[in-house]
Amino acid sequence: MSQAITHIDAKLSNWIMKQKIFFVATAPLMAEGHINCSPKGLDSFRILDEHTVVYQDFVGSGAETIAHIRENRRIVVMFTAFDGPPKIVRLWGHGEVITQTHPEFDTIASHFKAKRGVRSYIQIHVTRIADSCGYSVPLYEFKSDRNVLDKWVDSKTDDGVKDYIRKNNAKSIDGLDALDV
Description:
globular, 5 helices, Pnp Oxidase, Chain A
């Protein structure tokens, strides 16, 4: 049975930070637009306070989350236990895209290990938290993080990364504005 939670307390924070993967979902306002769901990992999530979270947004093949947040701010983050007792936690809220030109960029960045390939931070002001059982989620064993993104970014100059973002992350697949470089 799903249970509403009023805030991210120490117990929930500890559980969230032990998860190796989380999923982010957003959608455009247009009815025919594409809903997006993206897996995330690489120790890229932080809890700033009991109602505010943030994650590193890395260079990728698309920029759907950013475009959707810029259009309507709606976002949900889901964590699920792939080991230990079954559990799913969802954090719903309003997202904010923090790029290098944002006044809070350096403050947000200080919560993370410096890493090339970060194109923005997605800060979420959490408005609803709920957990559910996760009884049907299979058990998996974590082997390691992938280093493919690091290798790709390391093969590019800073200008090369910017060019990639300019060519591939300026618009969503539905034509919504995403990133300016």
